[in-house]
Design brief:
heterodimer; A: mainly alpha; ABC transporter involved in vitamin B12 uptake, BtuC; two-stranded antiparallel ribbon; 13 helices; B: 336 residues; alpha/beta; Rossmann fold; 2 domains; 7-stranded mixed sheet; 11 helices; 20% strand
């Protein structure tokens, strides 16, 4: 969580908490689009569309949040998802073919190994920025996926995989809720407990805030980082599973660009690239906001460029404006103090 | 006080944005999806939809992903399903990759027509093929053979390896090359530019570097042939490496005139979109079901027969590929 903040400035108190700000924005976005598109932009349809906008990016963002809390970054997640998906599709289809669930297990293993490699590189070479290391592994992992698949695609998964997991839904209180939405929502309470309510979770925030202080107070920061990167890798593979269930086919370009969406949504949810900050509730709300916004824009403008632009604007609005405000506040306080000193 | 103020502001924003509410009418609506946005070939295809719209009175929207991705197409299709379109007309980036989402569309009663590049049979009602695939493959081999004088190394610069139209044409090209008159022609490789200009250019550069004896290149895709022409010219190889394929007259006119590409082919993309529009409307109205043996009227193009495609689905044809050369290019470069 962002921690208790002293009431400063004129932004209404409750909006200063990121979670509340996001919640208010969700309500505004919903009503704005709903009034424009009363027939197609409904809660039921939004639930349905969460498949497209919320689930695969969501799983990546779950992993990313932990990495960001520790003050690191991982831009190789989309490539991990691509490599894991490729391995799954190829092992399932190759020659004799593995049983499907074994292939999926292998996929998670690939995610784990990729995360492990990222983690090892980051913790063994402190002088290198995680951004640079994962930039390298980003091209490496996707490159391996390309070597395996070349320009072809692989697929023909069991029909239940796309029918039930990809497009299946469960009827809850008379509303069709996509199965994959339930899957990702189930992760959040557990994740909340892990990050915000356990000692290791707390240590991550501490290490992210001041890694040197944490190390001197006996926290094994490298081990925490390894945990985060491995978890992140596995989550990327999980994202790949859900993505494959929707597409039914894998190409080496699958999930291209998703890492930036995952980082954007985590930061929108209250995380910071400088570490020590982040909120599971905020992340969930940011995902909902992104789904609501993107889907509305898609329906209104039907243009992919506008979707990306909107996320950029939203990021600037939410991240930059409070920062500028704080900057202005501290400058004013400073001026007042100087004035007081010069008077005395 | 501050809370009230912020809520008031939010409410004001809401009302200004909702001032103009326009709601859909009862006309048939079609959602058009193409391989990528900003591709002039599909802009011409959309002109065909416009033309048919004027005659049939339906509404349509069109969109394609910026990055030729399968995920992007799924996102667009899901949006169309949510809006409740009556038909989806798609040129697929991955013949298998959109089957699941299109099946979910069909379950909701939406008709699916694929045009230009087909969707696997399970995901479509009807495919609109520009021309007999075998002819498209054959004419390009004949042309390159003529240009390089019947012997030497050639290569193919395709779009995406998952794009069904490209693969079918290439397989017919390989078939054609087995004929004895082409015995001295060696197809060294097929590379893929994914219909992205920069990647196509790099692949062409790669071909030039890897095969110093390369005599000719076939690029059966409008993005690829334009990038290949630029690359050949940039390397000062005009006339040394011959080029043919499928290109847009508007993009290729200069290269055809300066001899980088002596001749190329294409059918009319406007007619392709036009036929896809007529087929979509016929399917929605129920005059056809998309079964082999049926036929429908496609406006100025006349009656179109629906045939068995041999992949479990059906298709119909638009026309024959047309040969563009320095003599006739000026007549076409402003059309599409």
């Amino acid at each position: 969580m962002t921690g208790a903040q002293k009431p400063t400035g004129r932004i209404p108190g409750f909006l200063r908490r990121r979670e509340w700000l996001l919640a208010v924005l969700i309500v505004i976005v919903y009503f704005v689009f709903n009034s424009q598109l009363p027939e197609s932009y409904t809660v039921v349809n939004l639930l349905n569309q969460s498949r497209v906008y919320m689930v695969d990016v969501g799983f990546m963002a779950v992993g990313m949040l932990m990495v960001l809390i520790l003050g690191d970054i991982d831009i190789s997640v989309a490539s991990i998802a691509a490599l894991a998906s490729t391995v799954m599709a190829v092992t399932y289809n190759a020659g004799q073919g593995l049983p499907f669930l074994v292939s999926v297990g292998l996929m998670l293993l690939v995610g784990l190994v990729c995360g492990l490699i990222n983690g090892l590189l980051v913790t063994r070479f402190h002088e290198l920025f995680p951004m640079i290391i994962t930039l390298a592994t980003q091209t490496l992992y996707r490159g391996i996926a390309y070597i395996i698949l070349k320009d072809q695609s692989a697929g023909s998964f069991p029909s239940w995989f796309s029918k039930d997991l990809g497009y299946g839904s469960v009827r809850i209180l008379g509303v069709e809720v996509p199965l994959m939405l339930i899957c990702i929502l189930a992760v959040f309470p557990l994740y909340y407990l892990w990050i915000h309510r356990t000692a290791p979770g707390r240590r991550m925030f501490a290490a992210g805030t001041n890694i040197t202080a944490s190390r001197y107070s006996g926290v094994r920061t490298d081990r925490l980082k390894m945990t985060a990167f491995v978890f992140n890798g596995v989550m990327a593979a999980v994202a790949g599973i859900f993505l494959c269930s929707r597409t039914g086919s894998v190409k080496y370009t699958i999930a291209a660009g998703f890492e930036m969406q995952a980082i954007a949504v985590a930061i929108l949810g209250g995380a910071s690239t400088s570490g020590g900050r982040g909120s599971v509730v905020g992340l969930l709300l940011a995902l909902v906001l992104m789904t609501a916004l993107k889907n509305g824009l898609m329906l209104l403008y039907n243009d992919a460029f506008i979707l990306n632009l909107s996320i950029g604007l939203m990021l600037i609005l939410i991240v930059l404006v409070p920062n500028l405000w704080n900057m202005y506040r501290s400058m004013r306080t400073l001026r007042r103090q100087r004035l007081a000193i010069s008077k005395s | 006080m501050k809370k009230t103020l912020s809520l008031l502001l939010a409410a004001a924003l809401l009302f200004t944005l909702t001032a103009a509410v326009v709601q859909a009418e009862d006309a048939i609506s079609i959602g058009v999806v193409y391989k990528q946005s900003g591709n002039p070939f599909f802009e011409a295809g959309v002109k065909g939809f416009e033309e048919a719209k004027g005659e049939l009175g339906f509404t349509f929207e069109h969109n394609g992903p910026a990055d030729s991705s399968n995920e992007g197409q799924i996102q667009i299709i899901e949006g169309y399903i949510q809006k409740g379109v009556d038909a989806i007309a798609i040129s697929a980036n991955d013949a298998a990759g959109v089957v699941s989402v299109l099946q979910s569309a069909k379950e909701k009663g939406i008709k699916v027509v694929s045009w230009d590049s087909k969707v696997n049979a399970e995901g479509r009602d009807l495919n609109i093929d520009p021309s007999v695939a075998q002819n498209i493959g054959r004419v390009q081999i004949e042309e390159i053979a003529k240009q390089i004088g019947g012997e030497g190394q050639i290569a193919i610069l395709s779009a995406g390896a998952t794009m069904d139209n490209q693969n079918t044409w290439i397989s017919y090209m390989k078939e054609e090359l087995k004929k004895p008159e082409y015995a001295k022609i060696e197809l060294v490789t097929t590379v893929y530019g994914d219909d992205l200009t920069d990647k196509s250019y790099q692949e062409m550069q790669g071909l030039i570097n890897s095969y110093p004896d390369l005599k000719g290149v076939i690029s059966p895709t409008t993005v690829g042939i334009a990038a290949a022409a630029t690359c050949i010219k940039d390397n000062g190889l005009t006339g040394k490496i011959k080029l043919t394929g499928l290109g847009l007259p508007s993009e290729m006119a200069d290269y055809i005139k300066d001899g980088t590409c002596e001749a190329m082919f294409l059918w009319n993309p406007i007619d392709l979109g036009y036929t896809a529009a007529y087929a979509s409307v016929a399917l929605v109205k129920g005059t056809i079901t998309g079964a082999a043996g049926e036929s429908f009227e496609a406006g100025r193009l006349g009656k179109k027969e629906i045939m068995d495609a041999g992949d479990g689905g059906t298709f119909t044809l638009v026309g024959d590929p047309f040969r563009f050369t320095a003599e006739n290019i000026d007549d076409w470069k402003d059309v599409y």
